Amino acid sequence: MSLKNILENWSNYRRDREAGGHHEYEHMWGMAIDLNKCIGCNACAVACYAENNLAIVGKEKMTKKQGMHWMRIERYWGEPDLDKLSQSSSQYQEHGANFLPMMCQQCNAATCEPVCPVAATFHTPDGLNAQVYNRCIGSRYCSNNCPYRLRYFNFYSYYESSWPAPLHLQLNPDLSVRDKGVMEKCTFCIQRIRVAKDKARMEDRVEKEAAVIKVGDSTFRAAAGRGKLEDMEFQTACQQTCPTGAIVFGDMLNPESQVRKLWDGHQVSLGKTKQTKQNPEKRGYRVFEALNTDPCVMYMERVREV
Amino acid sequence: MQTKDINEQIKWAQINKDVLRSMENPRMAYWVAVGTCLAMLMCAVVAEIYQYQVGMGPANLNWPQMWGLYIATFIFWIGMSHSGTLLSAILHIVHADWRKPIYRFAEAMTTFSLMTAGLFPMIHLGRLWNMYWVLPYVSDRGIWPNFRSPLVWDAFAIFTYLTSSAMFLFIGMIPDLAICRDNAKGWRKKLYTALSLGWSGTDRQWRHFRKTYLLMACFLIPLAVSVHSIVSSDFAMSIMPGWHVTSFPPYFVAGALYSGCAAIITLFILLRYFFRFEEYMTIPILEKTCKLTFVIAMAWSYLNLIEFAATWYGHDTAAKEVLWDKFTGPYSPYFWAMLFFGSVLPFTLAFEKLRRHLPTMFVVSLLLNVGMWLERWMIVSPTLSLSYHPIAWNVLWPSMVQWAIVFGSFGWFGLLFLVFVKVFPSVSMYEVKEMVYHRRRAHVEDQAKYFHRRLSDRQPATDTPSP
Amino acid sequence: MSGNEINRRDFLKVMGWSGAGVALAGCDMPTTVTLEEGKEKVTSYVLPEEYVIPGVGVYYASTCQQCPAGCGIHGRVREGRFLKVEGNPDAPLNHGKVCQMGQAGVQGHYNPDRITKPLIRKGGALVEASWDEAMDLIKQNVGAESTLKGERFAWVTGTVSGHQAVLLQSHLDAMGSTNHFAHEIVNNAVSQAVNREMLGEAQPAYRIDEARLIVSFGADLLGASQSPVHFTTQYAKFREAPRGVLVQVESKMTLTGANADLWLAVRPGTEGVLALGLANALLVKHKRDAADLPADVRDVIAKYDHDTVQRITGVAGDRIVKVAAWLNSQSPSLVLAGGSAEGQAHGYDTAAAVMLLNIILGNIGRTIVSSGDLPFAQMEAKSGNTAGLLALADTLDKGGLDAVFVYNTNPVYTAPSHLNLAEKLSAVPFKVVFAQFPDETAMRADVVLPIHSPYEDWGTHVAGYYGNQISIQQPLMEPLNPTTRGFGDLLLGMLKMRGVAGYADFEDYYGYIRQAVAALPAEMKADAGSEDKYWQQVLQRGLIPVQRKPRSLTAKAIAVSLPDYAQDSEYPYHLVPSPRLGMWDGRYANIPWLQEAPDQISKVVWDSWAEMHPLTAQKLGVMEGDVIKITSDQGAIEAAVYIYKGIHPDAIAVPLGQGHEKEFSRYAKDRGVNPLKILSPVREAKTGELALYGTRVKLAKAGRNEALVKLGGTDQQMGRKLVATVTADVFRRTEGGQDVA
Prior knowledge:
The structure holds three protein chains of three kinds.
Chain A: H1 3-18, E1 29-34, H2 43-52, H3 59-63, E2 72-76, H4 80-83, E3 98-102, H5 112-115, E4 121-123, E5 129-131, H6 141-144, E6 152-153, H7 159-162, E7 183-184, H8 190-202, E8 211-215, E9 218-222, H9 237-241, E10 247-251, H10 258-265, E11 284-285, E12 297-300, E13 302-304
Parallel strand pairs in A: 1-12
Antiparallel strand pairs in A: 1-10, 2-3, 4-5, 6-7, 8-9, 11-12
Chain B: H1 12-22, H2 28-54, H3 69-80, H4 82-93, H5 103-117, H6 119-123, H7 150-183, H8 186-195, H9 203-236, H10 248-274, H11 283-313, H12 317-328, H13 332-344, H14 352-355, H15 358-385, H16 400-423, H17 429-454
Chain C: H1 8-27, E1 34-36, E2 40-41, E3 58-63, E4 72-78, E5 81-87, H2 100-109, E6 119-122, E7 125-128, H3 131-142, E8 153-157, H4 162-175, E9 179-182, H5 189-198, E10 205-206, E11 213-217, H6 228-238, E12 245-250, H7 255-258, E13 262-265, H8 271-284, H9 295-303, H10 306-313, H11 317-329, E14 333-337, H12 339-342, H13 347-361, E15 368-369, H14 386-397, E16 403-407, H15 411-414, H16 421-426, E17 430-435, E18 447-450, E19 459-462, E20 469-473, H17 487-497, H18 509-518, H19 531-541, E21 543-545, E22 573-578, H20 592-596, E23 610-612, H21 614-620, E24 626-632, E25 635-643, E26 651-655, E27 696-705, E28 725-727, H22 728-735
Parallel strand pairs in C: 8-9, 8-16, 11-12, 11-14, 12-13, 16-17, 17-18, 22-26, 23-25
Antiparallel strand pairs in C: 1-2, 3-4, 4-5, 6-7, 6-18, 10-15, 19-20, 20-21, 22-27, 24-25, 24-27
């Protein structure tokens, strides 16, 4: 690491990261979640437990808020947006609940990444915010610095308590069971991504040329030799089970992908702290965008008839 | 009433005798203190073993309270370490010679509180056994720590500060160790012979010694300031409301000096009482320390106000919520206690009567440090309990495991200090001699000037004035 | 080797290249955070393990048996282990989707508390025994040589369908008994009875996707309903542009209510009055044509004018006007009754009043269409209900049973305590429970036979709702415990035991199903080619589509009579024992995922709680987490309260699911309460169903606080833009009738 390089590149460093990072990407996995469709049924959350070997911590530890819900359905009462518009009765929750599925937002300018002392969490060329369990020393700084609070820590060793025999036979062999002292979080089902990428490579579905791809206002350099995956070739566990299809997952670098079309359609762009929409009524938004985390998950506003 | 910083008539031999006496023949009270500290330490050791085996859960850390008392106490101990540098290095450079009788134990305190502080980042790690990964050791896999992380900076800063302050302590002690060597027998003789590095007090040695000492002092001052600034960047570099505060580095440094000075007062009174150091740790020196503490307390209070004001007039509603929560929320009793101990209580230092009353000062100095410890807790926990995402709002009271380790850290510090005062001279003999010499001389010169003025047209015939 | 010989050199070449390939693949690790592009990398080569160890799963199609809906699933299998449930995209019922209970089935399969050996009651206690012993005992008691009289034998089951239903019926016939008590707590038996009378078909299909407006009176379509996933997939289409409007009328917010555009809290039991009030508004205010309605029906509707309805239901007048206006303008609409509306003493009339609205609005034939008849009537689902439970209790009361076989239901847990079912069952001399888990009923049996989990067993099923296919259930893995047996095999065995003709040739249930599929009409297999190929096709798809023969629905309006709302001074509150997606009727309390998955509404985990309106809480002087005592005339339960505005002030809701006996599961042990236990003996007047929502209770502070274990620190968004809401006008302006893309 020469001083000259650092000095040359440092000033551009942060800005480049906001534009999606400094290196060449293979993919840029993103999500779009339609709150008009989400009914808060929790199927995604349980599917996530099943797919990702999430530990069951039990009542006592849930009381202490030591749970491991990578995918959590938040439910809010109170409707700041609707109270202005309709004469909602103050006595009843007339417009139902506000459900919000929250998983790791895979921020392109993730606040968890720079603070990890051992770089156990870093950005992959898939645009993912990866967590290396082996490398993690459990300083928990990343969780403290995550405005979405989606990082969960293994406060205990759960293997024996969570999977008493024969429940352990259910464990997904594609990913590890995390031991105590390690931080974990949603990976966008990285094991499924890997299977799909391997398959594409084996079938020789490869983009030969490097390319510069514009996603909204951001420009990404796409690496040569990246896999050519069909949209919806594979799904994340939550998306797959979502009965209303509220969750759409895909490659933002693929202009044909559903998720990209949704982002473009809702005029939401990566790399911004405030969206400048041609049509401000479009429903897309990102949570805590103003914090400049540049999340890869877009939500579409809940809709209610008033 | 004692008005002079030190008895100017004291004999060199008396100084040697008094200090060397303090290092010998531990009394019952000493062994009781050692036993107490050991017991406290054992509490922490047991708790840590339990935590190591089971995980961080029993400490009552949770989502979102990922950090708790460990980090708060870490900052507390780091802060404590700043006073030694202040006394030995800063005051050395500005030629405040009243520091001389008390800087040695303050410097020891620096080293030991750093040794205590350094334990906490390790204790709080989920995987303690991998803690060396934070250090940039050479690995054939090309694995480095993440240089962007303030925690890595912490590791560097603490290690640098610890080694530098230990060296500074040692270098400053060399002439004294030689005195010890000359008066010791048995294992002590061997130890001091080795440590005094052949000091014989030649001019050349003194010249080199002075230069080295001054150089170390100059090196240590920016280091001390940077260490707590770096610790503050653990918070200031994050994006969390209540942490992301620009004024944190000076605020942390001020708090550090504050708690350090308060600790000096505490130890000052203890050493004076137990080692009968009335001749050296005099009331006027205590008064000076108290005044210094008072000034720092006011600076700290001012920086506190700046933080409140900046948050209040800022645009970050989340930060305002955190601030408001500190005032009114579940942590408010501790927050108000911190403000009382930190900003109101130091006014006792402004009154001469109280300043000179040792029992009062002892209690006050302890309470000031309680306030400073609360300050660190109030930095860490309210923000974690109340951050951007309301789904994770939660307050969790630290468990006995955390309390035991925090408690035990005081035992560990106490133990180190107790060993120190019996093995090394806790008052700098050669510097007290210097001080006495200079004072005496200054006194003589003053008189000379006085008489010179009265007998204006004639030069004094001899060095000593004659009526 | 002679024809295709590889010499040593070639071999080495191949090895060399493949070795290099491996090495290259090893080097081909994705670059990580780079400080300076292409020059030096600051980060390590350490990668998430998930990034480097992919595995390939095998998927088998099967049918979910978690609830009677019968969704098509794919089971992911690796190394012979069944790992995960995924939806079967080929299944028209659920379009590749599954709910959380479906996902959690795998934890039922691997549950550490499964019964693995037959148990026999010896000297009062259940002890492990061999299959031979158990089967001998059964042979003695119900075999061909036994002296058991036919009508003194009974089957108690949950909903059964497909060949299971066929064999069960055969067994009953062989025994000479007609006693088949099918019991489910979550049912729509009252609606079915109403549909049968008014439409001429018990379970018509609802075209939720076609409707522009749905007004649901307590029907928890998205939650505890006949086919939650099916309804939810339809709901997704319903919510697409131009986006239908959902109005939910109930006294405790269900999952469906939580997603309604307008959630109306109605005084418990007065849903029917509101329905008639809406009918009144349609006829009077909106001048809907009422010529087809019989005079007595019109008279009834006329009684419920705006003010009367407002007084009885407690719904604000402007809301009634609004819903009536929507009903008038939005077409086609769909009005549904369910759960809390039906579960009253006058549930039948309430459901009929709701159906009247459909008739007035002309929804019959548009959004309510015939499901038609299955060509194989004997395979049609026999849906469970609570009348089955009451009938069982009555029969037991009369001392009418000597042998009871129980499968796939847990009546001892679900029966209210006034039925005294546990005691009555104990009096039956011979009780056999076919069980996976040591539930309350199994623990009272004389013989407990450990059966395969649904993922180890063969079967065919026909969904009770949207049964447009025969769903195939196939084993996803070898039985986890070699000592469990398939229920179908056991049924077949018992038929053989009775010496019933025609079954002797089948070695096992699989053989029986193979033969049954082989016997399907040839035109169904036309494109398969051969019989074996067809069987492979069936297994791959996991279902056999069948053409149901549609009927023409009638629209017979009947006059209803609904009681005025009566206060009860001693028991002023209404108990709402709410089933939910997750715990369902309590059968999933042994599945840790579902225990740890928060309730959709209150977000409470691992426990029971009582939902309460802030006004009621104020009246009682309780805060969240305070424990209250809920007393009915049948007993009392205690639970900590959750306070929110999604419940009527007169109602107190306690979710089903907890309060199991300790043998059932380590996960359900000493956890919460079972509100079903304190239900009053109120029965629906016309169908004889148990009025689940007809219990009145009084409340008292228990004087202690047990903080609720909830996900989340606050219920409010605190000014953050977490869930933003726009009005439907905006939605339609921007997304119109087309997709956003």
